[in-house]
Write a structure and sequence with these properties.
Radius of gyration: 17 Å
CATH superfamily: Vaccinia Virus protein VP39
Helix content: 25-40%
Strand order of the largest sheet: 3-2-1-4-5-9-8
Oligomer: single chain
CATH topology: Rossmann fold
CATH architecture: 3-Layer(aba) Sandwich
Shape: globular
CATH class: Alpha Beta
Bound molecules: S-adenosylmethionine
Number of helices: 6
Order of helices and strands: HEHEHEEHEEHEHEE
Number of strands: 9
Structural class: alpha/beta
Largest sheet: 7 strands, mixed
Length: 222
């Protein structure tokens, strides 16, 4: 089953200055987020301790993950971020979540914008590394050390290759589709991500196997 980027937009996303009221019945919706939110939450419950008070999400997309996770961790602030065109959708999900610990959305396009201001204990990102060009993944990782607290956590969810091999036929198909659509996209090698994180002083704490041939990789700042 392909579980990665089947985001369907039920709405045409409006510019943030558009003054129309939020019609949250027409929120953007990602079926993949619906499927993966529970398994991801299970891992988040293991990783997130009371000491983690501030989380930055890079590439929040629809905002579904933030809206689902934040109510489970009322002791922390969950800051959403993405390129501008996703902000309205994120606001809709925030508005419907009825919690006050979701912050943002902050405009953060890796490679263009500065790293969001704040003092973060954890960075979470899902299904972004195979969408961004590898050079931007490198930029993102290079920005982490100076913007995260000591012992900060970084969680990266998505499909990854190991030893240069796909972990499933569906991932191989998915990778082909990505590259046909945009040549800079594609499933990344776990080892490349691990080595780049290590270069910027993050050690790997865990590499969780997730449903539908995905992984959730947990790093800690040294
Ligand atoms: C496949 S979607 C994943 C969205 C959401 N995290 C999820 O799991 O459903 C990829 C996201 O990465 C964002 N993205 C792509 N390039 C980016 C960049 N250079 N900086 C920040 N976000 C980026 C897109 O705007 C989009 O929201």
């Amino acid at each position: 089953m392909i579980d990665h980027v089947d985001i369907m937009y039920k709405i045409k996303v409006m510019h943030k200055d558009d003054q129309k009221p939020l019609n949250t019945e027409n929120k953007p919706f990602s079926p993949a987020c619906e499927r993966n939110k529970e398994p991801i939450l299970t891992v988040l419950k293991k990783v997130i301790t009371p000491k983690i008070k501030s989380v930055l999400e890079m590439g929040s997309g629809t905002g579904q993950h933030a809206a689902y996770f934040a109510p489970h961790f009322s002791h922390l602030n969950w800051t959403t971020s993405d390129v501008l065109e996703h902000h309205l959708g994120i606001r809709m999900w925030m508005s419907d979540s009825n919690v006050d610990n979701i912050v943002g959305p902050v405009e953060y396009q890796v490679g263009k914008d500065d790293f969001p201001k704040g003092s973060f204990d954890m960075v979470y990102t899902a299904n972004t590394f195979h969408i961004m060009p590898w050079e931007k993944v490198e930029v993102f990782i290079s920005q982490l050390p100076s913007n995260l607290k000591p012992n900060a956590h970084v969680l990266i969810y998505g499909p990854f290759n190991y030893n240069g091999q796909f972990t499933s036929e569906s991932n191989e198909r998915f990778d082909r589709n990505l590259r046909e659509r945009a040549s800079h996209q594609g499933i990344r090698n776990f080892e490349d991500v691990r080595d780049k994180m290590s270069e910027f002083n993050f050690r790997i704490e865990n590499d969780y196997e997730m449903p539908a041939n995905n992984r959730l990789i947990h790093f800690i700042k040294i």
